[in-house]
Amino acid sequence: MPLVYSCISLLHGVTLAEYAAFAGNFGAVAKEYLARTTGEGKLSYAVDGHTFTVLCRGGFVFLVAADEATGKTIPSAFVDKVADEFTSKYADKAAGLAGKEGGLQSSFGKQLKSTMEHATQYPEEYSKVASVQKKVDEVKGIMTENIDKVLARGEKLELLTDKTENLMFESDRFVRTGRALRRRMWMQNCKMKIVVALAVILLAVVIFLLVCFSGGNCLK
Description:
By secondary structure, this protein is an alpha+beta fold. 64% of the residues lie in helices and 17% in strands.
């Protein structure tokens, strides 16, 4: 199995729920790395052919152990999914269990088991989730960097608003100019076609008259 152990704990180390796919010392190793977690964010550790992925969010720590061959993508998506599920269903209940070891084992332990089995059976879904999350994080990073650059230059929001309005005005003027240019070109094209048609007709009349006056009996 790619995922072998998962748990959720409070930041100071009390494990609220856990699930192990098979027997081992994963819980003991997990506690060691849970104790190292001090702030928000995600970390990954390699231990004896396994990776331990740890996510800290809102004072709770979510951990999953996986075979090292599984890589980091699926475990990373797994802890994100578990954190979302926990926050939506159990966060309020867990707030009153700060000192109770295994306080959510009967309820959330089943959820950990179900989610681990699903990730093992459908790993491609978690790969896609991780890929999308990575792109979202990259976009957020770029936006944050751009905002920081703007603030570093000391530009005020009013100036940015004025620049935006000017860009919108220039864009609108460009569109109007383009439409007017297309209309002028269309009119010139029509005029050219009319001139060519008249020239052809005039040439035909001249040829006709030349033939007639040269004795062609064209009027008989």
